[in-house]
Amino acid sequence: MPDLQWKDSDSVGIASLDAQHQGLFATAHRLRDAMRSGRAATIQQEILAELGAYTRSHFEREERVMQICAFPALCGHQHLHRSFLEQLQAIQAELRSDRSGITPDRMEFMRVWMRKHVAIEDAQYATWIHRRELPVHGLTTTEIQEKQKCHF
Ligand SMILES: [Fe+2]
Ligand SMILES: [Fe+2]
């Protein structure tokens, strides 16, 4: 999985969401730099809190876009978002109790998740929105609404 770099191939075709993805990668990059250079745990906590808040607001915006565009796999995508936010909260709690700073394995988990999510899962709604070769385009509005329903 490539490093914390946003590339043109990551574009979802919506400028505001691309800008948020770039901002998220940049924030995670700062956190990793702080970890690697041994910055104080309180500084790392602040950057992680920033990353958490940024991620939350990005997910909200992205889910609104998916809803407006009638993306049928919205529910599954929301579930991925929700479980990542839970993981972030757990890492935040861990960092508050263990003052030695974020661990490399937690940092790597976040990096890999973010890279993969943008490159693979976000690319799926981008494909849908831009009407590229998806068989589900034959669905009726009612069928799409039914598929979007969440059961968790
Ligand atoms: Fe995203
Ligand atoms: Fe997403």
Automatic annotation (TrEMBL):
It comes from the Bacteria. InterPro entries: Haemerythrin_Fe_BS, Hemerythrin, Hemerythrin-like, Hemerythrin-like_sf, Hemerythrin_metal-bd. Keywords: Iron, Metal-binding, Oxygen transport, Transport. This is Hemerythrin-like, metal-binding protein. GO terms for molecular function: metal ion binding; oxygen carrier activity. Residues 13-128 form the Hemerythrin-like domain. Belongs to the hemerythrin family. Pfam families: Hemerythrin.
